[in-house]
Write a structure and sequence with these properties.
The complex is a heterodimer of chains A (about 110) and B (about 220). With about 110 residues, chain A is an all-beta fold. In chain A, about 0% of the residues lie in helices and about 45% in strands. Chain A contains no helices and 7 strands. Chain A has a 4-stranded antiparallel β-sheet with strand order 4-3-6-7, with no helix packed on it. In chain A, a hairpin with a 4-residue loop joins strand 6 and strand 7 (about 95-105). Chain B has about 220 residues and is mainly α. Chain B folds into 2 domains: about 10-100, Cytochrome c-like domain (Cytochrome Bc1 Complex, Chain D, domain 2, Orthogonal Bundle); about 110-220, Cytochrome c-like domain (Cytochrome Bc1 Complex, Chain D, domain 2, Orthogonal Bundle), CATH 1.10.760. Chain B contains 10 helices and 7 strands. Chain B is globular and about 50 Å long. Classes of the chains: A mainly beta (about 110), B mainly alpha (about 220).
Chain lengths: ~110, ~220
């Protein structure tokens, strides 16, 4: 089961403020370079891309490779303009896809 | 444990073990398909009923058996939920355990000897001082005599099991105390006991006795 956590600051946000968003998702990020005890290759299973949309517009995206650790954790700033959903989408190998969103509330 | 790992553990949002907690809380409230109750069906609110539980485990059960928290959850799954218990080290079981352990965070670990487990404590202590493996080393020779010094570039800790289940950066996953102990056993080239063996439980009970009074920091992050 995939679990993800999204953190949007709970302090009052004004329009124009830079807010830090954080997101973490459970994923093994198997590199594909490792082998089992019996010498069989463990197939690659990583998240390839994470996209963040704020109020429907893509504001941040990242392409991931094998060097990213398990349970990728991303933190970045966005300029708050108006109240709206912050939607995260993770896409990866073996048809992996997870979406989760949080509400960013702008006061004043 | 370096300052980076400590900072990672301190912030619930950067602690990867909290993903396990979230999964465990979801599992706590979801009933099995066979119509038997979910964990919450018997135990209710995890925040109320599981408070302090991890701090007093391993514990003696009503039928006299001594179990660690993993074994207790497995017993619940087989007896009350009538499902095949999830195996040790499975993500689902570690997640449930992490969710329960979080409810004891900051609380003092209770001494097993004060709960009628003195015999297990002495059996565990004997194991702790027993030289093992091709390297012929006991737990005490590293964790009592040489804690704070370096072993292969890492600091030797005192071996207090305060944060299990942990997210270990080396494993890139959650793991139990037994898995960590197995690591030490293979490190001294000794053959580990089978998973869930009573020797592991005795050793855990002795380590909890040693750590009694320390605050639980479960679920922890370790390097």
């Amino acid at each position: 089961m995939t679990t993800a956590m999204i953190l949007v600051p709970r302090t009052p946000i004004r329009s124009g403020d830079v807010v830090m968003l954080k997101a973490m998702i459970s994923h093994p990020m198997e590199t594909g370079y490792r082998r089992t005890e019996n010498g069989e290759e463990i197939p690659r299973n990583i998240i390839r891309r994470m996209i963040c949309r704020y109020d429907g517009v893509e504001v941040f995206s990242v392409e991931m490779h094998q060097a990213i650790a398990a349970n990728p954790f991303m933190s970045f700033g966005v300029v708050a303009t108006k109240t709206g959903p912050v939607e995260f989408e993770w896409v990866g190998d073996n048809g992996f896809r997870h979406r989760q969103s949080a509400q960013l509330t702008v006061t004043g | 444990m370096g300052p980076e790992a400590q900072a990672m553990q301190r912030d619930d949002f950067s602690n990867p073990a909290m993903l396990g907690v979230a999964a465990g809380e979801a599992a706590w409230n979801s009933a099995p398909a066979n119509g038997k109750p979910a964990c919450s069906g018997c135990h209710g609110d995890i925040n109320a009923t599981m408070r302090g539980v991890d701090a007093r485990y391993p514990a003696r059960q009503a039928n006299g058996a001594v179990m660690d928290l993993t074994g207790r959850i497995q017993t619940c799954q087989s007896q009350h939920q009538a499902i095949t218990p999830e195996p040790r080290e499975s993500a689902g079981l570690l997640a449930l355990q992490a969710a329960v352990a979080l409810r004891s965070r900051g609380m003092q670990i209770e001494a097993p000897a004060s709960r009628g487990l003195s015999e297990a404590v002495s059996r565990g202590e004997a194991l702790y001082r027993q030289r093992l493996g091709q390297l012929n080393l006991s737990c005490a020779q590293c964790h009592d005599d040489h804690w704070g010094r370096s072993l292969g570039g890492t600091r030797i800790p005192q071996g207090h099991p305060t944060g299990y289940p942990i997210f270990r950066l080396e494993w890139q996953a959650m793991g139990s105390l037994q898995r960590r102990l197995r690591n030490c056993f293979t490190g001294v080239r000794a053959e580990p006991f089978p998973a869930g063996a009573s020797e592991w439980i005795d050793l855990e009970i002795y380590l909890r006795q040693r750590a009694a009074g320390m605050a639980s920091d479960a679920p922890g992050v370790r390097p």
